[in-house]
Amino acid sequence: TTASGLADFAGQYKIHAGGWQDWVSATTSTSAIFNISVSVGQTVYFRSRARDIIGNLENWPAGENGDTSITIIASAPNIITAGNTSFALSNWAASFTWAHTISGDDPVLLVSLHGDGDYLNANSVTYSGQAMTLAAKKIYNQAFNNIAVYIYYLANPPQGAHNIAVNIGWAFPFAASAITFNNCNTANPVNLSLTGVFVENTIAMSHATTTTSANIMLVDAVTYNKPSFISVAAGAGQTRYFNQESTGQWFGQTNDLYAGASYKSAESAGLQTMGWTTGDSRTSVQAIVALNPKP
Questions:
Q1: Is 238 helix (H, G, I), strand (E, B) or coil?
Q2: Where are the beta strands (DSSP E) in 90-144?
Q3: Would strands 95-102 and 81-89 be described as parallel, antiparallel, or unpaired?
Q4: Contacts of 114 (CB under 8 A, 6+ apart)
Q5: Is 269 within 8 Å of 215 (Cβ atoms)?
């Protein structure tokens, strides 16, 4: 009697309705990497047969489905999500710092600045000493309607709690907000073709943009000239994360202003709007920035 046992085995594959192809042969390994390109929606079938130590060879499994199979499906899209927020009000200072915490994967930090158009002229904005990039700004100066808004960004900022530092060059009050977004395309964070700035004098202002791909995150910041108290509301589908309504004045600032910021996820390509409504007509400036999702 001759003892028998497994000597080795071979494996084949086929893609969709194609023919069987050799994959591994004369192997005793229990795993292998399948590095052959397969299209989304196709099924890959696998089969194996063994050979014992005296040379007996097993038949391939009957049927076209082999031993097992796997169907390739599209990966889930990367959805940009909103993370930590923070805000600050300067107190007649030419520079100002406040703490903001970064967490999560593939982050992009946005900072908005709001103030008087005569004096808010940001020279630099940094996070943990790293320079942030200006994405959009709008300044409007006419008679007593002096208002300004800026949006800065930084891709892959350091994780943890660090300081945002703003230098405006003038000792004058201003408001600022910060927000982190995750699952962003940190190599190409801002979609410049969808970025815009506007000035309005109306009760309901709305600006449209057309996204050409899904899961773009639209973020806007507004500054209103607000000599008397009015209600301010973000547009449909927008989540307001910054809401600085001053019923008096920011540290005695000459012009009473309103500062706000919001975001909206454009889950599908097409026409998108970012807008705000007020109790009556007020001059406003708006900056809109679009963030690209992680590829």
A1: coil
A2: 95-102, 108-115, 124-127, 130-131, 133-142
A3: unpaired
A4: 120, 147, 148, 149, 174, 175, 176, 221, 222, 223, 244, 257, 259
A5: no
Half-sphere exposure of 290 (CA within 13 A, CB side): 23
pLDDT tier at 210, thresholds 50, 70, 90? very high
Q: Using one digit for the tens of pLDDT, what is the confidence trace for 132-169?
A: 999 999 998 876 678 899 999 999 999 999 999 999 87
Evaluate if pTM is beyond 0.90: no
**Paired sense of beta strands 257-266 and 239-245, if any:** antiparallel
Residue 128, classed as helix, strand or coil, is coil
User: What's 117's DSSP letter?
Assistant: T
Q: Is the pLDDT of residue 1 over 50?
A: no
Q: Which residues, including other chains, have CB under 8 Å from residue 9's CB and lie 6 or more apart?
A: 27, 28, 48, 49, 50, 51, 58
Per-residue tokens: 53:
């130590």
Through-space distance between the first and last CA atoms of the chain, rounded to whole angstroms: 62
